[in-house]
Amino acid sequence: MTNTFERLRAILVRDYKIAPEALTLEAPLEGLGIDSLGVAELLFNVEDEFRITLPPEPVQLPTVGDVVDYIDRLIVAQNADAASTDAAAESASRLG
Amino acid sequence: MRRVAVSGIGIVSPLGCTTAEVWERARAGQSAIRRLDAPFASRLVAPLAATAVFDGAIHFEPPKLRMLDRVSQFALVCAGRALADSRGALEGLDRSRAGVFVGTGMAGTLTSDEGYRVLYGEASDRIKPYTVLMGMHNAPAGWIGIEHGLRGPNLTYSTACSSSAVAIGEAWRRVAGGELELALAGGSEAPLSFGSLKAWEALHTLATIDADAPETSCKPFARNRSGMVLGEGAAMLVLEPWDRALARGVRPAGEVVGYGLTTDAVHITRPSVDGQAAAMRAALQSAGLDAARVDAINAHGTGTQANDPVETAAIRQVFGARAGSIPVSATKAVHGHLLGAAGALECVLSLFAMQHAVALPTMHLALADPQCDLDYVPNAAREDVAARTMLSNSFAFGGTNAVLALSAAA
């Protein structure tokens, strides 16, 4: 969680020149000048930084903390998917 | 009809981004046309452009900057400067009686180009979520309205190279007629995308590079003219009732006194002598001016094979025997063709010319063309030209001819 927050904060400081001290978990993104479309754009960078794939469904992520939670949920889900795929591949190879 | 003052001006242009700088370079005939320094320049037949020295990051916070195509950045900066120059035109104003009128030919072509690069070039689906909002033609006008709370008509005109002359003319009508108390009017263009430059190249209207001096590649009215050079920038004007500006203690830059609008209805690119002449006559008629009162003309003067002799013939048709003694300036030789912003920039240059009693030069005119036989003020500004009334011509692909009649501040 802390790690995700730090990495997200680094993106926001780098690409949006937002002062690091303004970036708390409770901070509303709209108040930082990033509206819902801005969040959608931000998530492209999140995909690259966290090596995750975002689902196509739109999401409402009003605060920095909401984005952090969203990323963490996707990381857990996609690691689990990868693990089960690996496991399936492994058992398939044993069968071979 | 009320008198309409130009009480504020903001410019971002290849000639500079302050009115003083723009004026001095136009008067000195210092061309801003250069070999284009861009990653794709090697894929252009004649990589030339007139770029503006402009960094949006200086003017906008990063989150907002990401929502603004360069064309909207130009427009917003110019609108802010024009209002500042007007020294309080918004004070005490009912903002539902204030409108925004912006001309643009290609609007967010840089955004479109970038979107296509991602989609086709990278085969990625990550198109920017702001693409529609950045690329739409009315984005510059929309942003100006939001920034300054102007709640009257917010209109965008896209009539190619006459767009911003149309915008100023349409704004003038509404302020003169009493419908509006203030209009921000002008044009903005940021056309220097790879796709746009290739498309213009394919149309065979762009100048070839003058190998000896690339900055002289655009040669309006010269026998060796080879076409136009694309430029970027914007110019915005504050238009308001003359008395209102004066009551604030503002000395207007000049006055819009008339506007003529006609359509060739002949050919999508080929200009028409009759259509252009009719637009000049219409401008005179709307201003209640006799042709004899016109002291100077800012020509459309693109430097293309097609435009220059046709415009020459149109001026002859309107002014008859007097045509040869009217100074006709083609400033695109130095600032390039700003397409949808050209009319606004040239309107401003015309007002400055009258203020300073100078006829601006048509640069790079060494070889005369027998078909272009007017007084183009070749190669050097002429001082002590006490022009009181000027026409500024803007003619366009599609056939929309717009002419502004302008007067010096009196």
Summarize the structure.
Chain A is mostly helical.
Please tag this protein with its features.
heterodimer; A: 96 residues; mainly alpha; Non-ribosomal Peptide Synthetase Peptidyl Carrier Protein, Chain A; 65% helix; 0% strand; elongated; B: 410 residues; alpha/beta; ten-stranded mixed beta sheet; 18% strand; globular
Description of the structure:
The complex is a heterodimer of chains A (96) and B (410). Chain A is mostly helical and 96 residues long. Chain A has one domain (4-95): Orthogonal Bundle (Non-ribosomal Peptide Synthetase Peptidyl Carrier Protein, Chain A), CATH 1.10.1200.10. Chain A has three helices and no strands. Chain B contains 14 helices and 14 strands. Chain B has helices at residues 19-28, 56-59, 62-65, 70-85, 109-121, 131-135, 139-148, 163-176, 194-202, 242-247, 273-287, 307-319, 332-335, 342-356; strands at residues 4-12, 34-35, 48-49, 98-103, 154-157, 182-189, 233-241, 254-263, 296-298, 328-329, 358-359, 382-383, 389-394, 400-407. In chain B, helix 12 (307-319) links the parallel strand 9 (296-298) and strand 10 (328-329). In chain B, helix 11 (273-287) packs across helix 12. In chain B, 59% of the residues are buried. The chains are: A mainly alpha (96), B alpha/beta (410).
Summarize the topology.
The complex is a heterodimer of chains A (96) and B (410).
Chain A: H1 2-16, H2 36-50, H3 64-95
Helix pairs in contact in A: 1-2
Chain B: E1 4-12, H1 19-28, E2 34-35, E3 48-49, H2 56-59, H3 62-65, H4 70-85, E4 98-103, H5 109-121, H6 131-135, H7 139-148, E5 154-157, H8 163-176, E6 182-189, H9 194-202, E7 233-241, H10 242-247, E8 254-263, H11 273-287, E9 296-298, H12 307-319, E10 328-329, H13 332-335, H14 342-356, E11 358-359, E12 382-383, E13 389-394, E14 400-407
Parallel strand pairs in B: 4-5, 4-6, 9-10, 9-13
Antiparallel strand pairs in B: 1-7, 1-8, 2-3, 6-7, 8-14, 11-12, 13-14
Helix pairs in contact in B: 4-7, 8-14, 11-12
